[in-house]
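Dig into this one:

. . .
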Amino acid sequence: MAFDGNFVHALLSELEVLRRGKINRIQQIDETSLIFKVRSAGSNHHLLISAHPMYARFHLTGQKYEFPFEPPMFLRVARKHLEGGIIQEIRQLGNDRRVEIHIQSRNEIGDEIRRILILEIMGRHSNIIITDQDYRILDGIKHLTPNNNSRTIMPGVGYTAPPTEPKLNPRTEEIRSLPGLIDFNSGRINRQILNNTEGFSPLFLKEVEHNAGYFTIKNIVPAIQQTLSQAEDIRPVLYNRNDKEIFYFTPLSHLGEADETYDSLSGLLDDYYHDRYRKSLIRQKAQDYLQLIEREYDKVARKMDKLKDDLKEAEEKDKYQKYGELLTAYMHQVKPYDAALEVIDYYTNEPVTIPLDKHLSASDNAQKYYKRYSKLKARENSAGIQLDRAREDMEYLSNLLHQMDSITTEEEVDEIREELIEQGIIKNNRKQSKKKKQKIQLHAYTTSNGLDVLVGKNNKQNDYLTTRKAQNNHLWFHTKDLPGSHVVITRPAAEIKEQDILEAAMLAAYHSKAQDSESVPVDYTEIRHVHKVSGAKPGFVTYTDQKTVFVTPDRQKAAAMESGRTD
């Protein structure tokens, strides 16, 4: 990608449609991104502005976003000073990735005021800042305190530009002095040009070098000017080179023919960033739930260790019962203040020494051992039951951890969240509980013989597929004794060929914990032999009449078989 100063220069011509437009509403998508709803020339436009550390940008958007935020302070300030305002000017500062949007508005008593919205698109240092007409900061979406920063971004402080070395604006006559700043003998000419010019990216300089052949003191400026002139032909393009996507506002000769072209720069940015932004949100949401599941897993593991210790201790219970019986039988031999009693065990005819509490009577010592026996026996029974439940919980959580690795959509995150609420792992949130439930969608594949195969990637999908969607004569697949997805060929078993079985089994192995293994055992049987256990954890079933095949997961083959999602 190359959201450089040249790209910003091209993008501003597209944003001219917002000039004289009225800002009707400002909403916040996340901690760093805003949507400005602007009415201009009889049409509504949505301007997305983001200071995201990875996806900083600004452009018109046609995507739909949720606005989960209660208005934070920056949004309140933006609404107070900018809503209802008219956009007077959108200008780039030099050839840099800094833009000022000048807005005419009115204050609470109706007096005309001017505000400046400053966009700094600089990777992780990106920021969105609101100032008055004298460049006094009203607020910034990211605050910089004076302690550890070279400049301060706080309300009431005068705005200063990011600290950078002075550079030449390549769109002015300044660029003619560039050869005097380059040491042609030291090499790395591209790096030297980057250090001395505004708004250039390594991608753009590769194009300049491609046009120049190689840099000399005579051709360096003409090559830059020629490439900038060619770049006036704004045709948004996307290249896919070595599994890496590269976009630019104009075709680049050194990359050859573009893989995709767009009607507008905003359309290009919308397409490129929206999918990445959604995936980052999914990863973040999934990470939050993953940490909850991992904590629950560790909690159950500690509980299992404690229960095993209890069972080990309970192994001594029979000894204490025998002590009680022998004391009762030989009680007459106990003398006051005896610390122990040696008797013959009438079960084994061997001598046994019974420790005594010398402050208790023989009868009380016997009762003490009977009580310890009863206590350990009860603990053993309870620990055994709890350990069985803990093992089920551990298996369930292991399955959840596997499912978290395969999440690809927001709907799947929401399905995991609903399940965690149902299992009491997290508390419900009233506001979120009002959200309309999404219809469960399954992942669809097609075998080489054209048969449809459905895959559930989490417990909700698995339960829906196995207990509601599939029919009794459909074939069901699952990895043997390993966490994994439920897989169903939606065709009567009698019509399914061996090749289809092997391909569906491969999908079951691919969507399991054994994804990177070889010769994975996969069980398959008809749905009529698969049963949901009453009271069992989500996704848990029992099955009979199964057969087993051994398959090796194949990522490329799975991708080729994928046909989308279906309900």
About this structure: The radius of gyration is 35 Å. The longest strand covers residues 22-30. The chain has a mean pLDDT of 91.
